[in-house]
Specification:
By secondary structure, the chain is α/β, with parallel strands linked by helices. 53% of the residues lie in helices and 7% in strands. It has 28 helices and nine strands. Helix 2 packs antiparallel against helix 3, helix 11 runs parallel beside helix 13 and helix 13 runs antiparallel to helix 14. The protein is globular and about 100 Å long.
Length: 605
């Protein structure tokens, strides 16, 4: 919230009626009487419309009340009335930053620093905006300059740590946080940021200890309980996590992030309606909380409330940590309503090859509605898509910042396709991916040389392993009920976990055949052909399982029922897809037992 103390003259200067009225307004503002404060400032303006301090204070009031356009107008008038007033430039920049006008905000912070180089808040804000713009080297340089002026400021060193974190220099960031805490052991923000960084890098034990250290310093800091609870969630200590979140809520009942986190926890516990309630409360408290909107989308998808879910899913582009940004093409985004019969539509990918391949199941419908459809996709998918969707123009994707393309009338991200082509998210889907028939025959011969049918491809983990994803994945030991069946098992696992192949033979005495010349990560056209040669694929949700389902191979998918990603928007499509789900707190035993019975029936014919 904007500070109200930096603008008013000191009491000794309050000699004029304007000064006295300004101090009267400031007193009202500090004692949370905004209406009376505004009346005092407006009284000044009635006599002197160009009173810089009064305009500034009205701008602060409007900003704290969320009236950004009004705040910007007051601040713009304030800097004209008092061009040497550094704080007016600073707070004008803060309003522009709140409005997402980052370049303009940066200019304001620079003006403030030109007028008053020692203005700490301007230095901090400048660094934050540079971080938001991705100019991390410039942000770090700005922070280091500020530190030379304010060597004892923990806030600057904290800013340096946050910049280093964004740069991927985790060790250096932790060092800066440790120095900050050594010099300022009561600075709870540093405990929160250190715990959050340790949490994000999977060092859960250290993160938990750090949050506890912070709580020992200040047991009334709700953010520390929030952070601790998040660690407990990933540690599967859900009852303790719930108690921690509720403690945070007691301390700060109107903190939107706590409500959002509670929504995520209740989703994890399988209490979807409770999750939706907390997420909606988070959004009511902070309407621009993009993460809460996206989590609400997933919760609503799980409850089959698809129309509302799709609208909430559109918020994904506003998340601070969104790795892929909305394309800033000059041509408009398709609204799903405009007739495309005589129009050219560009579709571009978001997320990874797995999600894109799932959403590609609706390409035939959208292609049929357009005069010409251009599908941009990842290079590893190009040959497969060119063969599977011959009525579209398939292109390699271009960098997000490339705005030069203009040979289309409308564009749309792939993640929005189902919203306009399959709003009911009906999973019934014929095979839609067409593998190379020559390579299918080749892999059929290779499989025949390994042993008798049925040929069963298996994948037990995703290529990316972290604490958020691990509940979706299995361990080699979990496969015991299934792996002893009289079938020929072959590897569909890529990434570091492929090194666990030998454990199947060590633990279960069963060889899982691996074809070293099959690139499961990059040669997805060949993976599709290999998938079509299989009799069955059994996998957690991965790109490979999306391919096996898409080519029409019978596919069994192991899924954590309460996963935010386990919903019809993100589930593999194909004519023979079956899900075997475990709930939070359960192991995979029942899933593998059920699959073992079904596999035996398939073997028996």
């Amino acid at each position: 919230m904007p500070e109200a103390t930096s603008a008013a003259p000191p009491p000794s200067a309050a000699t004029s009626s304007e000064d006295r009225k300004l101090l009267e307004g400031l007193t009202h503002q500090q004692e949370n009487r905004p209406e009376l404060a505004e009346a005092a400032y407006q009284e000044i303006l009635a006599a002197n419309p160009n009173h810089g301090h009064a305009l500034f204070m009205l701008g602060l009031l409007a900003h704290s009340g969320g009236r950004l356009d009004e705040a910007l107008d007051y601040m713009a008038r304030a800097v004209v009335a008092a061009p040497a007033f550094a704080n007016a430039h600073l707070h004008r920049g803060e309003v522009l930053q709140s409005m997402g006008q980052l370049e303009n905000a940066l200019g304001c912070f620079d003006q403030a620093l030109d007028l008053k180089p020692e203005l700490l808040d301007a230095s901090l804000r400048k660094s934050q905006v540079l971080q938001q713009l991705g100019r991390l080297d410039a942000a770090l340089s700005s922070d280091q300059k500020a530190l030379s002026l304010h060597p004892a400021s923990p806030r600057i060193r904290l800013n340096i740590a946050l910049t280093l974190r964004q740069m991927g220099r985790i060790r250096d960031a932790l060092f800066q946080l440790d120095v900050t805490l050594a010099e300022n052991p009561d600075f709870t923000e540093a405990y929160f940021q250190k715990g959050s960084l340790l949490y994000a890098t999977g060092r859960l034990t250290e993160a938990l200890a750090t949050f506890d250290e912070g709580i020992a310093v200040d047991c009334n800091d709700a953010r520390l309980y929030n952070g601790k609870a998040s660690v407990l969630v990933l540690s599967e200590r859900l009852d303790e996590a719930l108690a921690c979140y509720l403690q945070a809520l007691d301390l700060a009942p109107d903190e939107a992030q706590t409500h959002s986190n509670l929504g995520g926890l209740y989703q994890r516990l399988g209490q979807g309606k409770q999750a939706v309630s907390y997420l909606r409360r988070a959004i009511a408290l902070r309407p621009d909380h993009a993460e809460a909107h996206q989590n609400l989308a997933f919760a609503l998808f799980n409850l089959n409330q698809n129309e509302d879910a799709f609208n909430e899913f559109d918020w994904r582009w506003r998340k601070d940590d969104q790795n892929q940004k909305m394309r800033a093409y000059e041509k408009p985004l398709w609204d799903g309503k405009t007739e495309l019969t005589n129009q050219k539509l560009l579709l571009w990918p978001e997320q990874g090859p797995q999600d894109v391949t799932i959403w590609a199941s609706s390409l035939p419908q959208i292609i049929a509605r357009t005069k010409h459809c251009i599908v941009q996709t990842y290079p590893k998918l190009l040959p497969l898509y060119e063969r599977s969707f011959p009525d579209a123009e398939i292109r390699a994707d271009v960098p997000v910042y490339d705005k030069s393309q203009n040979d289309f009338d409308y564009h749309l991200p792939m993640g929005s396709l189902f919203k306009y082509t399959r709003p009911d998210l009906n999973p019934d889907q014929p095979a839609y991916l067409l593998p190379d028939p020559g390579r299918v025959a080749y892999w059929q011969q290779r499989l025949a040389a390994t042993g008798p049918a049925p040929y069963v491809g298996i994948s037990w983990k995703g290529a990316v392993i972290n604490d958020n994803r691990s509940p979706n994945y299995t361990e080699v030991a979990d496969w015991a009920p299934l792996i002893h069946k009289p079938a020929t098992f072959v590897n569909l696992q890529c990434g570091e976990s492929a090194s666990e192949l030998g454990a199947f033979e060590e633990l279960h005495g069963v060889r899982v055949h691996d074809f070293e010349d099959l690139d499961l990560f990059d040669n997805l056209d060949d993976v599709a052909a290999f998938a079509a040669a299989l009799d069955l694929a059994i996998s957690v949700s991965t790109c490979v399982s999306a391919l096996t389902a898409g080519v029409g191979t019978e596919t069994w998918i192991l899924a954590w029922k309460q996963s935010p990603w386990n919903n019809l928007l993100l589930q593999s499509r194909g004519p023979a897809v079956t899900h075997f789900e475990r709930s939070t707190g359960e192991d995979w035993q029942a899933c593998f037992d059920a699959m073992a019975v079904r596999l035996q029936a398939l073997i028996d014919g």
